[in-house]
Amino acid sequence: MLVLSRQRDESIIIGDNIVVTIVDVRGDKVRLGIEAPREVSVHRREVYDAIQRENQQAAKIRPDDARRVPDNARDAK
Questions:
Q1: What DSSP assignment string belongs to the chain?
Q2: Domain annotation covers residue 17
Q3: Is residue 18 part of a domain?
Q4: Which of 10, 43, 56, 77 could be joined to 47 by an S-S link, Cβ 3.0–4.6 Å?
Q5: Taking the CA atoms of the chain, what radius of gyration do you get in angstroms?
Q6: Cβ contacts of residue 7 below 8 Å, gap of 6+?
């Protein structure tokens, strides 16, 4: 892990197209601004972990399980 010290309004660059800027520091909280291309997903760690868990659960569904879902539930948007 790379550990850097930055002050408010200072940035770091990740790759060629991701910029992380320190927006504010209040006590033990740091606010970050993140500029990244639309195709790059940016999530808080706990949200990312929840998405991964949901994807793993969805991957375990067997074709027989999907056939048991009522038609109106499959067509809902």
A1: -------TT-EEEETTTEEEEEEEEETTEEEEEEE--TTS----HHHHHHHHHHHHHHHT--HHHHHTS-HHHHH--
A2: yes
A3: yes
A4: 43
A5: 20
A6: 22, 25
Phi and psi (nearest 5°) for 19?
A: -120, 125
16-50: pLDDT as tens digits:
999 999 999 999 999 999 999 999 999 999 999 99
- Domain residues for 48? 11-69
Give the Cα separation of 44 and 31 in Å (integer).
12
Question: Residue written as tokens 């539930």?
Answer: 73
In a domain, 75, yes or no: no
